[in-house]
Amino acid sequence: MRELVDEGILERKRKAGTKVKSFPTRRAQFSIPIIGEEITDTGAAYRYNLIERQVITSPDWLRSRMDIPKGTEILHLQCMHFSDNNPYQFEERWINLAAIPQAKECDFENIGPNEWLVREVPFTDGRLVFSATNASSRLAKLLNTTDGTAVFTVERMTWLNKKNVTYARLYFSRDYKMTSHF
User: Fold this and answer.
1) Which terminus has fewer CB within 10 Å in the chain: N or C?
2) Sheet holding 46-57: strands in order across?
3) What 8-state DSSP symbol labels residue 44?
4) pLDDT class of 22 with cuts at 50, 70, 90
5) What pLDDT, in 10s, does the model give residues 60-109?
């Protein structure tokens, strides 16, 4: 019954019982893809490059977004993912070291944070925000586009048992397409 409620087919109300919805809710489901596999599945060659790795104290804007205490150590990573040597995605990621201390030991030189997290760290909840971002001159250079070009952007947060694990901003090159099934 719970699965049918979660899928939007049944409606349960306290003291009123359970009924089949007249207009069931349709939901799209998203999985967190391993970016390298997403690229190689198209037949293209994948390449990864770590641009920057630093441990920082969480800035105020990030503390409020991740709901973490002042002074929390964060691993901040910036990296590029390439498809056939063409820019595919710029990934900027912040990992909460209070939740995932083992991330501090990984150098992320040979494995991207996306792949490492999907393989090493379970998560219980997540949130995705989709938008378009006008590329700054730095972002335009990284993605091989022009300043001000709108690029598809995904903000992703994950939690493990109500503890925030990571916050990421993913910027995709021009012509990127996301597909979801429902």
Assistant:
1) C
2) 46-57, 73-83, 86-96, 163-172, 150-160, 125-134
3) P
4) confident
5) 999 999 999 999 999 999 999 999 999 999 999 999 999 999 999 999 99
Q: What residue has token string 């719970």? A: 2
Show me where the domains of the chain are located.
Answer: 1-29, 31-172
Dihedral sign, Cα of residue 79, residue 159, residue 165, residue 70: positive
Kindly write down the DSSP assignment for every residue of 58-107, as one continuous string.
PPHHHHHHHT--TT-EEEEEEEEEEETTEEEEEEEEEEETTT-GGGGG--
- 31-172 fold: Chorismate lyase (3.40.1410)
Cα 154 to Cα 169: distance, rounded to the nearest angstrom: 6
Q: Quick check: 97 and 75 in contact, CB under 8 A?
A: yes
Q: Token match 């379970």: residue?
A: 122
